[in-house]
Amino acid sequence: MSRPAPCPIYTLRGAGAPLNTLHFRCPGGDTPLLFSGSAKGAIHIWNLNSRRAEMVVEGHCGNSVIWVSTLQSGDSLMSQGRDMQVCLWDLKEGRSEAVDSVWTGSVGFCQCSLLETSPSNYLLAFAGSQTEEIKIIEMPSKNPVCTLIPDTKLGMVMSIQLWKPDSGLGPLLFAGYEDGSLLLWDVTQRSELSHVKAHPEPIMCLTFDPRRLRGVSGSCEKKLSSWMLDNQNNIQLQDCVMLVNPGVSQLRIRDDSRLLASAGWDHRVRVFGWKKLQPLAVLQYHTDMVLSLAFSDHQDPRQRLLAAGSKDQRISLWSIYNEQADTG
């Protein structure tokens, strides 16, 4: 018999608005934290020991926060809002005013992507003011690196991810567009490496696993599209995973490359084995669209969590498949 669907181990309430983005910071020995960004412009910093918000930052003049992340140093928080700003916050100081900001000019919902290139420098990619434009800058200097614009009309940039291959090549970037196209860009050469039509509808989300050179994308249809890179850096479309209901807000792969989670418009989180895309569980708790997901970065695998944020203004936390069970 299959195991019954699990329940959340606890929930976080009090954000007071839909939860667009989630990000964990769970260093060993320190207080595990969960950062959330809401549709009313608030960033909550949740203490996972007390299960309460220990700080709330009002960062984007009441505009929706669509992305949050921390730098590996642990002291800097970044947030992106629909006020066309990316803000940098110093967590050491406990300050509630941004120490720096970047103007994006983008009114869309494409989340930024961050790639740390050294302990003190990182690349920041974001959708620009033009429909198909992606800008990449070096931080903290804000020096422009490149602007990427496709040769053909693909519509709005919907989803991006920077990554650095082990081969010694410079940074690469995946980008999903409004017409369903998926492109791989060489950031150093400012050139397209590969272009496939992954979906007939806009690519709402994508995620890539550099360990397996494999990724997956979702749209408003009833399927996920998986793809991989060959040794010539060409994107090869692979299997499709059919879903019961249409619409995926976000996709996340756990750091150990064992699990894939999808945030559904049907109020559900679906969990798959990442190796074979085998369905493992359907997590049912929320009463509206699930908008955001994050896997925790606990050093002890037994403590790992999956967080889901919903339009119903709640965050659910789940402990799933943390033992060495076969996840396909």
Automatic annotation (TrEMBL):
Protein species of origin: Crenichthys baileyi (White River springfish)
Repeat found in the keyword field: yes
Transmembrane intervals: none
Protein's UniProt name: Guanine nucleotide-binding protein subunit beta-like protein 1
Keyword terms, alphabetized: Repeat, WD repeat
WD-type repeats, residues: 283-320
Keyword Repeat: yes
Classification via InterPro entries: WD40/YVTN_repeat-like_dom_sf, WD40_repeat_dom_sf, WD40_rpt
Record PROSITE patterns: WD_REPEATS_2, WD_REPEATS_REGION
